[in-house]
Amino acid sequence: MAMHRIGLLEGGTGCAGLLSRALPPGLWARCHPAQAGGVYDLLLVAPDWCGPLPAGLTCRALLWPGRLRPLTEALEAGWVVSYGLTPRDSLTLSSLGQDGLCLALQREVVTLAGRSLEPQETPLRGFAGAEPELVLAWAGVMLLVGVPVERISRYDFDGSAVDISAADSKQ
Length: 171
Prior knowledge:
Helices cover 18% and strands 30% of the residues. By secondary structure, it is α/β, with parallel strands linked by helices.
Protein backbone atom coordinates (compact mmCIF):
# COMPACT_ATOMS: atom_id res chain seq x y z
CA MET A 1 0.00 0.00 0.00
CA ALA A 2 1.25 3.47 -0.83
CA MET A 3 2.44 5.58 2.08
CA HIS A 4 0.11 8.52 1.66
CA ARG A 5 0.57 11.64 3.77
CA ILE A 6 -2.79 12.66 5.24
CA GLY A 7 -3.42 16.07 6.80
CA LEU A 8 -6.32 16.81 9.14
CA LEU A 9 -7.91 20.19 9.87
CA GLU A 10 -10.42 20.13 12.70
CA GLY A 11 -11.90 22.55 15.18
CA GLY A 12 -12.09 20.14 18.12
CA THR A 13 -11.12 16.52 18.61
CA GLY A 14 -14.24 14.66 17.45
CA CYS A 15 -12.92 13.76 14.01
CA ALA A 16 -9.49 12.65 15.25
CA GLY A 17 -11.20 10.68 18.01
CA LEU A 18 -13.39 8.76 15.58
CA LEU A 19 -10.58 8.26 13.06
CA SER A 20 -8.17 6.99 15.72
CA ARG A 21 -10.70 4.27 16.63
CA ALA A 22 -12.10 3.61 13.17
CA LEU A 23 -9.14 3.70 10.77
CA PRO A 24 -6.83 0.70 10.61
CA PRO A 25 -3.76 1.52 12.77
CA GLY A 26 -1.36 1.70 9.82
CA LEU A 27 -3.56 4.27 8.13
CA TRP A 28 -4.20 6.31 11.29
CA ALA A 29 -0.42 6.56 11.78
CA ARG A 30 -0.22 8.56 8.52
CA CYS A 31 -2.72 11.22 9.70
CA HIS A 32 -1.25 14.43 11.08
CA PRO A 33 -2.62 17.87 11.96
CA ALA A 34 -2.31 20.02 8.83
CA GLN A 35 0.17 22.87 9.10
CA ALA A 36 0.80 26.06 7.13
CA GLY A 37 2.81 25.29 4.02
CA GLY A 38 2.04 21.59 4.34
CA VAL A 39 1.93 19.34 1.30
CA TYR A 40 -0.40 16.34 1.58
CA ASP A 41 -1.64 13.54 -0.62
CA LEU A 42 -5.01 13.88 1.11
CA LEU A 43 -6.25 16.78 3.21
CA LEU A 44 -9.31 16.07 5.33
CA VAL A 45 -11.26 19.05 6.62
CA ALA A 46 -13.38 17.92 9.57
CA PRO A 47 -17.06 18.89 9.81
CA ASP A 48 -16.31 21.13 12.80
CA TRP A 49 -13.63 23.22 11.05
CA CYS A 50 -14.52 26.91 11.31
CA GLY A 51 -11.25 28.84 11.32
CA PRO A 52 -9.22 30.34 8.52
CA LEU A 53 -7.15 27.86 6.55
CA PRO A 54 -3.43 27.71 7.32
CA ALA A 55 -1.50 29.56 4.63
CA GLY A 56 0.03 27.70 1.71
CA LEU A 57 -1.69 24.34 2.06
CA THR A 58 -1.34 22.07 -0.96
CA CYS A 59 -2.89 18.66 -1.51
CA ARG A 60 -3.56 16.20 -4.28
CA ALA A 61 -7.06 15.42 -2.99
CA LEU A 62 -9.23 17.49 -0.68
CA LEU A 63 -11.98 15.82 1.37
CA TRP A 64 -14.20 18.70 2.33
CA PRO A 65 -17.58 19.23 4.05
CA GLY A 66 -19.76 20.40 1.17
CA ARG A 67 -21.42 23.10 3.25
CA LEU A 68 -18.01 24.86 3.46
CA ARG A 69 -17.53 24.81 -0.32
CA PRO A 70 -16.82 28.55 -0.80
CA LEU A 71 -13.59 28.29 1.23
CA THR A 72 -11.91 25.85 -1.17
CA GLU A 73 -10.37 28.68 -3.21
CA ALA A 74 -8.03 29.36 -0.27
CA LEU A 75 -5.85 26.32 -0.95
CA GLU A 76 -4.37 24.41 -3.85
CA ALA A 77 -5.95 21.01 -4.49
CA GLY A 78 -5.77 18.65 -7.44
CA TRP A 79 -9.40 17.59 -6.94
CA VAL A 80 -12.11 18.00 -4.33
CA VAL A 81 -14.46 15.37 -2.93
CA SER A 82 -17.26 16.90 -0.90
CA TYR A 83 -19.04 15.04 1.87
CA GLY A 84 -22.20 15.87 3.76
CA LEU A 85 -25.90 15.23 4.00
CA THR A 86 -27.10 17.07 0.89
CA PRO A 87 -27.75 15.79 -2.63
CA ARG A 88 -24.97 18.01 -4.02
CA ASP A 89 -22.24 16.25 -1.96
CA SER A 90 -20.16 13.59 -3.72
CA LEU A 91 -20.21 11.39 -0.64
CA THR A 92 -23.39 11.21 1.45
CA LEU A 93 -25.66 8.85 3.32
CA SER A 94 -28.75 7.58 1.53
CA SER A 95 -30.27 6.24 4.73
CA LEU A 96 -29.85 6.74 8.46
CA GLY A 97 -31.70 3.95 10.22
CA GLN A 98 -31.56 1.77 13.29
CA ASP A 99 -30.17 -1.03 11.14
CA GLY A 100 -27.20 1.09 10.11
CA LEU A 101 -26.15 3.64 7.56
CA CYS A 102 -25.98 3.42 3.80
CA LEU A 103 -23.04 5.19 2.16
CA ALA A 104 -23.80 6.73 -1.23
CA LEU A 105 -21.30 7.86 -3.85
CA GLN A 106 -23.39 10.40 -5.77
CA ARG A 107 -20.89 10.86 -8.57
CA GLU A 108 -17.58 9.45 -9.74
CA VAL A 109 -14.77 9.71 -7.18
CA VAL A 110 -11.09 9.28 -8.06
CA THR A 111 -8.73 7.59 -5.57
CA LEU A 112 -5.20 8.81 -4.84
CA ALA A 113 -3.94 6.13 -7.24
CA GLY A 114 -6.17 7.49 -10.01
CA ARG A 115 -8.74 4.68 -9.94
CA SER A 116 -12.31 5.77 -10.68
CA LEU A 117 -15.10 4.74 -8.33
CA GLU A 118 -18.50 4.78 -9.98
CA PRO A 119 -21.64 6.03 -8.21
CA GLN A 120 -22.92 3.32 -5.89
CA GLU A 121 -24.37 2.61 -2.47
CA THR A 122 -23.09 0.29 0.23
CA PRO A 123 -24.33 -0.46 3.75
CA LEU A 124 -22.18 0.50 6.73
CA ARG A 125 -22.40 -1.11 10.13
CA GLY A 126 -20.93 -0.49 13.52
CA PHE A 127 -21.49 3.26 13.60
CA ALA A 128 -24.64 3.44 15.73
CA GLY A 129 -24.73 6.78 17.50
CA ALA A 130 -21.76 8.24 15.60
CA GLU A 131 -22.10 11.70 14.08
CA PRO A 132 -23.06 11.11 10.39
CA GLU A 133 -20.58 13.66 9.00
CA LEU A 134 -17.75 12.03 10.94
CA VAL A 135 -18.70 8.66 9.46
CA LEU A 136 -18.61 10.27 6.00
CA ALA A 137 -15.16 11.73 6.70
CA TRP A 138 -13.94 8.26 7.72
CA ALA A 139 -15.47 6.63 4.63
CA GLY A 140 -13.95 9.31 2.40
CA VAL A 141 -10.45 8.68 3.75
CA MET A 142 -10.88 4.92 3.31
CA LEU A 143 -12.13 5.28 -0.26
CA LEU A 144 -9.54 7.83 -1.36
CA VAL A 145 -6.61 5.74 -0.12
CA GLY A 146 -8.04 2.85 -2.12
CA VAL A 147 -9.79 0.56 0.34
CA PRO A 148 -12.40 -1.23 -1.81
CA VAL A 149 -16.05 -0.38 -1.16
CA GLU A 150 -16.84 -4.03 -0.44
CA ARG A 151 -14.25 -4.07 2.36
CA ILE A 152 -15.65 -0.86 3.84
CA SER A 153 -19.11 -2.42 4.01
CA ARG A 154 -17.68 -5.31 6.10
CA TYR A 155 -16.03 -2.95 8.56
CA ASP A 156 -16.41 -3.72 12.28
CA PHE A 157 -15.57 -0.25 13.70
CA ASP A 158 -12.44 -1.52 15.44
CA GLY A 159 -10.73 -1.97 12.07
CA SER A 160 -10.33 -5.72 12.45
CA ALA A 161 -12.40 -6.59 9.37
CA VAL A 162 -10.64 -4.20 7.00
CA ASP A 163 -7.42 -5.34 5.36
CA ILE A 164 -5.84 -2.24 3.85
CA SER A 165 -2.96 -4.18 2.31
CA ALA A 166 -5.03 -4.66 -0.85
CA ALA A 167 -5.75 -0.94 -1.18
CA ASP A 168 -4.29 1.08 -4.03
CA SER A 169 -0.55 0.64 -4.15
CA LYS A 170 0.21 3.03 -6.98
CA GLN A 171 1.80 6.30 -5.84
